[in-house]
């Protein structure tokens, strides 16, 4: 089955690159060479790889090298279209299948220490077997490849530049944000791992504990995730001075943008942050098929500046570059704090009471599909706010924005919750509501609590997922809270209830970041 799937995925990627020019034909025309090799990774594990070298690379000169670990579940030809473009402009490119996937040996380590050691072994191999320049080494990747690239940069000071696309900086904050299991994301990753690779006992245990909500194993699971989180090693990256470019989509349902923005703020060396509409890896996919793509264009410019030394101006541009989920073009900011420098506060004065155990109809959509649709057609998940069943949904609305509003950054909910059970889950949604009451999803996030005293209120602070959304003139914003969403595992006992209040000593509110006009 794995071999058949490999052929199908490979055929799709090769067919995509053929929309421009097939890799083989392109290599013959441009003089670049493509060869498939085996590289000995950590402990001698065989990593399947391909190498693309520039035309005229006869061994007399040295070229900057870019190493590309593959995405979770994709074969080694994933980056072939981008590899040949890099080779055309004078790079040696080595792409390899991470251990445990497809025909590479070993078991899936989920960006563990052996994966990081593999990256170093691949660099060693490139320096020994290609005309790669040891002073000009870069790494890049999408998703899994992005995470491995950042972790490798923390351990290997030879890596001078990284382009980490649709990846993670904090694995726990990605799939366990708000102390809530991201069910569809974990199931998708786990399923893809079993279908295209060989999960080891460690990963199998972590998945089992995660999906079964085993709180006795929570600390162990968090420690496992922290070890695989570049944010815990940011001091090492800063000490190395690595130039880091981060790119992600506003609606990434596997690695939400908040954790990238927080990581970006901690970086001290050359850095760049780009957010665009879409879901996980959808902002990069056309580039993988050999088509024009803004994200990959930025990555190439990043390497040209920090590996080749080309004065292309990328270091003089505003380093935070975002594209809103609308017809608007790119916006540049000096830093992430400047994106959300101005905030509107929606007071949540009226108390709301809801029952758990039912989905009110408000939800975050379907992993990968809903935000891809929003990217392509600007149609996010919608709901009729007036028709939401108030027994299962709490609703607060703002006044009308007569001139419209530009939401930019991370909305923050501060509220007081009184549960009838010791554990529970709620999900907060921010909607753009039109004159007919139809709400379009702007952002959302889940929140789970444990070990609370039933009947005793507690304070809850929740960051919704960062976004850039233009509210049309005459529309309102609405905050909706319910207790179930198919994207997440919920922890509400049967018959449990939640009350949201706003004590005079500590008023509840939703803080909405707005662009200053």
From TrEMBL:
Keyword entries, A-Z: Hydrolase, Signal
Annotated ranges, domain Xaa-Pro dipeptidyl-peptidase C-terminal: 300-510
Superkingdom in the source lineage: Bacteria
GO terms for MF: hydrolase activity
Signal peptide location: 1-27
Statement: the UniProt record of this protein carries the keyword Aminoacyl-tRNA synthetase: no
Gene3D superfamilies documented for this protein: alpha/beta hydrolase (3.40.50.1820), Galactose-binding domain-like (2.60.120.260)
UniProt protein name: Alpha/beta fold hydrolase
């Amino acid at each position: 089955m794995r071999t058949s799937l490999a052929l199908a995925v490979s055929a799709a990627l090769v067919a995509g690159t053929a929309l421009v020019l097939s890799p083989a034909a392109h290599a013959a025309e441009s003089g670049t060479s493509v060869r498939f090799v085996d590289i000995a990774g950590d402990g001698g594990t065989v990593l399947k790889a391909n190498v693309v070298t520039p035309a005229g690379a006869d061994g007399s000169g040295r070229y900057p090298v870019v190493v590309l670990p593959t995405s979770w579940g994709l074969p080694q030809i994933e980056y072939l279209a981008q590899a040949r473009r890099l080779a055309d402009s004078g790079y040696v490119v080595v792409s390899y299948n991470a251990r445990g996937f497809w025909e590479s040996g070993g078991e899936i380590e989920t960006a563990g220490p052996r994966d990081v050691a593999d990256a170093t072994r691949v660099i060693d191999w490139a320096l020994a077997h290609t005309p790669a320049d040891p002073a000009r080494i870069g790494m890049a990747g999408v998703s899994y490849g992005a995470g491995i690239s950042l972790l490798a940069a923390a351990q290997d000071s030879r890596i001078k530049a990284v382009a980490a696309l649709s990846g993670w900086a904090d694995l726990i904050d990605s799939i366990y944000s708000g102390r809530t299991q991201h069910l569809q994301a974990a199931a998708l990753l786990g399923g893809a791992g079993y279908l295209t690779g060989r999960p080891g006992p460690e990963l199998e245990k972590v998945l089992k504990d995660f999906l079964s909500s085993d709180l006795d194993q929570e600390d162990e699971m968090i420690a496992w995730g922290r070890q695989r989180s570049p944010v815990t090693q940011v001091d090492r990256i800063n000490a190395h001075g690595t130039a880091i470019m981060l790119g992600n989509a506003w609606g990434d349902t596997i690695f939400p943008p908040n954790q990238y923005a927080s990581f970006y703020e901690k970086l001290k060396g050359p850095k760049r942050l780009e957010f665009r509409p879409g879901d996980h890896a959808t902002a990069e996919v056309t580039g993988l098929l050999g088509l024009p793509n803004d994200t990959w264009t930025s990555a190439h410019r990043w390497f040209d500046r920090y590996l080749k030394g080309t004065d292309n101006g990328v270091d003089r541009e505003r380093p935070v570059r975002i594209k809103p989920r609308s017809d608007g073009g790119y916006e540049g900011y000096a830093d992430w704090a400047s994106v959300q420098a101005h905030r509107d506060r929606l007071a949540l004065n009226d108390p709301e009471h809801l029952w758990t155990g039912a989905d009110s109809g408000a939800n975050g959509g379907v992993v990968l599909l809903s935000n891809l649709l929003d990217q392509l057609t600007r149609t996010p998940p919608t709901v009729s706010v007036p028709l939401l069943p108030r027994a299962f949904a709490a609703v607060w609305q703002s006044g009308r924005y007569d001139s419209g509003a530009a939401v930019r950054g991370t909305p923050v909910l501060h509220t007081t919750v009184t549960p009838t059970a010791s554990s529970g889950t709620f999900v907060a949604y921010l909607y753009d509501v039109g004159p007919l009451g139809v709400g379009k999803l702007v952002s959302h996030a889940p929140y789970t609590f444990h070990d609370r005293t039933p009947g005793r209120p507690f304070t809850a602070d929740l960051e919704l997922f960062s976004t850039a959304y233009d509210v049309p003139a005459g529309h309102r914003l609405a905050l909706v809270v319910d207790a179930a969403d198919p994207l997440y595992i919920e922890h509400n006992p049967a018959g449990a209830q939640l009350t949201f209040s706003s004590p005079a000593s500590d008023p509840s509110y939703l803080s909405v970041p707005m662009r200053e006009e």
